[in-house]
Amino acid sequence: MPRSLPRFPDAPAALADDFERDLHTEHQVLNMGPSHPATHGTVKFLIELDGETIVNLDIQVGYLHRGFEKECESGTWYQAIPYTDRLNYNSAVLANIGYCMAVEKLLGIETPERCQWLRAMSGELSRVADHLTRCGAACLELAAMTPFLYGIEARELTWDLLEMLCGARVTSNYIRIGGVKHGMPADFPATAKDFIARIRKLLADFDKVVTSNRIFVDRLQGTGVISKEDCIRYAVTGPILRSAGVGLDLRKAEPYLTYDQIDFDVPVGTVGDNYDRYLVCVEEMHQSLRIIEQCLAKLDKLGPGPVNVLDPRVRWPAKGRVFNRMEELIQHFKSVTEGPRVPAGEGYLAIESANGELGFYLVSDGSAVPVKVRCRPPSFVNLQPMPLMLRGALLADLIPTFDFINMIGGECDR
Amino acid sequence: MQDFGSPALQQLIAQLRDAVQQTHAYRGDATALVEAARVENVLCFLRDELDFDMLTDLTAVDYLGEKPRFEVVYHLYSTRANQRVRIKARVAEEAPEIASATSLFASADWMEREVYDLYGIRFAGHPDLRRILLYDEFEGYPLRKDYPKERRQPLVGPRN
């Protein structure tokens, strides 16, 4: 520490001395979170700072750990579905789809065509909601309130549509093993068309306020950069991988449901920074709206039909028959109290969720209770290379980078 | 030992025959059970020779009552060939330890910490093996089948 600072500028000897002295400096460790107003998600950062430059970053996750896997492994196969709603609560339907399709894979069930189109449609609605939250909340955390409200208004429309479809806005619990809860109501297609037009209008408004906004561009361009090689090393998937220039989308790479019959494009970035991630997400929303329109057209063409597989292992008998016939009553009782028995074996099924590869690895010993329900969470895996994206960056860059990684506590911590 | 039409299994059986104990392709998932001591060898072969560049998932399963008790499960994906393969290795209860894959795949870091956290399987050579989802004072490994779901944990005061 300086002991005797020169009181006057005309004291050259002492000044030179001070400049030459090796001053003691040390890095500052800043604790951010677990509940911080500029992050949407419960996560704690221990940031080692040199001035405002990030030297090192330790991410501590787990604040939302509820024991998802343990709960799933102590109930029946059906009882896990509501838990999957609470993984990524922005896009619950996608997690429902992933889990149910994994169980169907073990059961060897093929779902009816109508159900697959309904699943694809509800899943894309969920994806739009997820991307809207990501982009809207990123604006909010960069101190722009208006675009956030546009985004949330559009998200509200997608949630209204999901509510029409399954009765709940957020925790949809819509997908069933071997089908969906029920088909869509009669007025759904007309409302959906109207809402899609309104969502497009809101996206255009959002675009006008944000995409070429000087402050937004300056905060996003060139921040949080990750190369495609690093993405692959860290198994990063979803919009982050695509923004880095790898056009990997499981809907194209391993087409599930009816995605092989749907016409849509996969946007790919070039730089791998936050701005590319934003552009990729916006384009994916437009593509998802296109997919929803195609699903609606196809469902209209298919006409009424079964949305559930007629397999007594997973399908409950119709209520009228349960009330009037002995065999169906017994079957209903067994289905409710025991649930389906899944043949012994293991299976991994991955779908493209809004954040990337959402996989379920299930192991069954042939009983009605799963041995293992592993959820491969894209948020958890995508969050891991965050120190790499931020080393040497400014502290302020942490906010947009974290926003566009879109870590969702429920899914990351399970 | 069959390869079930999977090029990865075929190569694995041809090149590392002594490390592979069993193969299956139940529901179309190419799977190889390999010797735990050779797992690093197998993963390295898959990455360098067969182009499986992404370790998408790493987890464990507790088969309580069987010997060896635990099974560590690796899911690999090749971004160029668009192929998947599953590698499994059995780990004994008495010495639950297996070689870390962090030197081969960066993504293994957090996933191995999670397996250590929830199953108590140690990964030799992991640079920073500490709990990740739970806190340091947590007693036991909750995803083990002999850990009761209702067990209470001691209260932990604030830390500095």
Summarize the structure.
The complex is a heterodimer of chains A (414) and B (160). With 414 residues, chain A is mainly alpha-helical.
Describe this structure in words.
The complex is a heterodimer of chains A (414) and B (160). Chain A is mainly alpha-helical and 414 residues long. Chain A has 18 helices and eight strands. In chain A, α4 (92-107) packs antiparallel against α5 (113-141), α5 packs antiparallel against α17 and α7 (188-210) runs antiparallel to α12 (274-302). The relative contact order of chain A is 0.18. With 160 residues, chain B is an alpha/beta fold. Helices cover 19% and strands 26% of the residues of chain B. Chain B contains three helices and seven strands, in the order αββαββββαβ. Chain B has a five-stranded mixed sheet.
Helices and strands, with pairings:
The complex is a heterodimer of chains A (414) and B (160).
Chain A (H helix, E strand, L loop, with lengths): L11 H9 L7 E5 L11 E7 L2 E8 L7 H5 L8 H5 L6 H16 L5 H29 L3 H22 L8 E2 L2 E2 L7 H23 L3 H7 L7 H6 L5 H5 L6 H4 L20 H29 L16 H6 L1 H12 L7 E9 L2 E9 L7 E5 L1 H6 L2 H5 L7 H8 L3 H5 L1
Antiparallel strand pairs in A: 1-2, 2-3, 4-5, 6-7, 7-8
Chain B lengths: L6 H9 L4 E5 L6 E4 L4 H10 L5 E9 L7 E9 L4 E9 L5 E3 L8 H12 L2 E3 L36
Parallel strand pairs in B: 2-5, 6-7
Antiparallel strand pairs in B: 1-2, 3-4, 4-5
Q: Quick one: overall form of chain B?
A: elongated
Radius of gyration of chain B: 17 Å
Number of strands of chain B: 7
Tell me, rounded to a whole number, the average pLDDT of chain A: 87
The count of helical stretches of chain B stands at 3
Mean pLDDT over the residues of chain B: 89
Largest sheet descriptor of chain A: 3 strands, antiparallel
In DSSP terms, counting alpha (H) and pi (I) runs of 4 or more, how many helices of chain A? Answer: 18
Percent helix of chain B: 10-25%
Number of strands of chain A: 8
What class, by secondary structure content of chain B?
alpha/beta
Shape of chain A: globular
The protein's oligomeric status is: heterodimer
> What percentage of residues of chain A falls in helices of 4 or more residues?
40-55%
| Rg over C-alpha atoms of chain A, rounded to the nearest angstrom | 25 Å
Give the topology string of chain A: H per helix, E per strand: HEEEHHHHHEEHHHHHHHHEEEHHHH
Q: Give the helix/strand class of chain A.
A: mainly alpha
* Spatial arrangement of strands, main beta sheet of chain A: 1-2-3
Which two chains have the most extensive interface, and how many residues on each? Answer: A-B, 42 and 35 residues
The run of helices and strands of chain B is HEEHEEEEHE
